[in-house]
């Protein structure tokens, strides 16, 4: 009985540790906010590797590099 209780407690602690270490910041949220504006200009390259989103106060560039990594650049005009 003690073994079951101890294993259950260890499992619960590990579960909480894994859930609390999750990255909850989603970069797609920034892009979703930009695309809902009516003054937003979106450009996509022919091969689809580059996306440029431009609003009145913000410019976002999203590029897929040759090695497959995604690079996001945000420029805020003040």
Key structural traits:
78 residues; alpha+beta; four-stranded antiparallel beta sheet; 4 strands; 29% strand; elongated
Write the layout of secondary structure elements.
Blueprint: H1 2-20, H2 28-35, E1 41-44, E2 50-54, E3 58-64, E4 70-76
**Helix amount:** 25-40%
Number of helices: 2
How far apart lie the N and C ends?
64 Å
Percent in strands: 25-35%
Biggest pleated-sheet summary:
4 strands, antiparallel
N-to-C SSE series? Answer: HHEEEE
Q: Which stretches are low in confidence, meaning pLDDT under 50 for 5 or more residues running?
A: none
Which word captures the global form?
A: elongated
Structural class: alpha+beta
Can you characterise this structure?
The model has no long low-confidence stretch (mean pLDDT 80). The chain has two helices and four strands; from the N terminus they run H-H-E-E-E-E. It is α+β, with helices and mostly antiparallel strands. It has helices at residues 2-20, 28-35, and strands at 41-44, 50-54, 58-64, 70-76. The termini are far apart. It has a domain at 25-78. It is elongated. The longest helix has 19 residues, at 2-20. It has a four-stranded antiparallel sheet, covered by helices on one side.
Give a quick precis of the structure.
By secondary structure, the protein is of the alpha+beta class. It has two helices and four strands; from the N terminus they run ααββββ.
